[in-house]
Specification:
The chain is α/β, with parallel strands linked by helices and 332 residues long. It folds into two domains: 37-134 and 260-327, Bordetella uptake gene, domain 1 (D-Maltodextrin-Binding Protein, domain 2, 3-Layer(aba) Sandwich); 135-232, D-Maltodextrin-Binding Protein, domain 2. Helices cover 45% and strands 20% of the residues. It has helices spanning 2-36, 53-69, 84-91, 106-113, 149-156, 171-183, 196-204, 219-223, 271-286, 288-296, 306-327, and strands at 42-46, 73-77, 99-104, 125-141, 160-165, 187-192, 210-214, 227-232, 258-266, 300-301. Helix 1 (2-36) packs parallel to helix 9. The longest helix has 35 residues, at 2-36. The protein is globular.
Amino acid sequence: MGDDKMTESRRRKFMRRKLSVALAAWALAGACFAQDWPSKPVRVIVPFAPGGPVDIIARIVGAKLNETLGQQFVVENRAGAGGNIGAAAAAKSASDGYTVLMTSSAIAVNASLYPNPGYDAERDFIAVAIPASQPNMIFVNASVPARTLPELISQSRGKKIAFASPGSGTTPHLTGENILRVIAKLDTTPIHFRGAGLAVTAVVQGEPPIGCMAISGPLPQIKAGKLRALAVSSAKRIPALPDVPTFAEAGFPGVEDYTWVGVFLPAGTPAAIVQKLNEAVNGAIRNPEVRERLAFSAFDPVGGPQAQAAEYMKAEIVKWGKVVRETGAKPD
């Protein structure tokens, strides 16, 4: 009996030692792999059409990553279903660092908006970094008589109206629903497009004449005089549009929403690669030229440690889940 116990004890010690050696070898292999990464072009899936905030950030940051990491970061636009089609494709990709998802805060919204978005935002992805964010904005075609958000609401009472959004499940979609339908109690319907670029074009054409999007999409057309900004969802006015009031100034206190852009890798990607990409993204947004380009499109640089991005992502899923329930928003 004593010999059996001793044999069992030795066996357990041997197995623990073997496991420790295996884990150390795995960690060393991951570190070595990260040193070589990237050794070929990296695919960057953007789940929205060109011209929107995610596409803009992917190309600005991606260009700097090309320089610092020595490989091409190739943007691939895979739009549809409020960002879910591209995100699902990224989730199914190999966890080797050669497929990156750059998406918006829609990934946090869709966790509760869609019964089955095709992936689990927390389980299937590692949040690497949040390069930038910007507020949302309600704006109109320049031919609309309303000069302010209260005027638009007053002129829309008793009518059926529609507003353009960059996609079902995006934060502008929910910002528009919250302000126009829930708070102002207008009879309004969101019309969803496959990204901000297409949605902006529709509002310029007056079909529909109202839009709610992150600022960077409509900003050029606002400066060109084809669109008119009514209010922004930030805590204070933004430098790019200093004459445009916040929602609070327009009579809607407590509504402060942002569209952020996040960098994600498939779950299981070696920690050393995650860290290397996080450091490269942070380095990119510290670059003066990149900051100038971000400011031109009304983005605020964010950045920070990988753990901070992961915690922020969890908090956003909780926040937007509450908004989805309160607004009763439904996907297309």
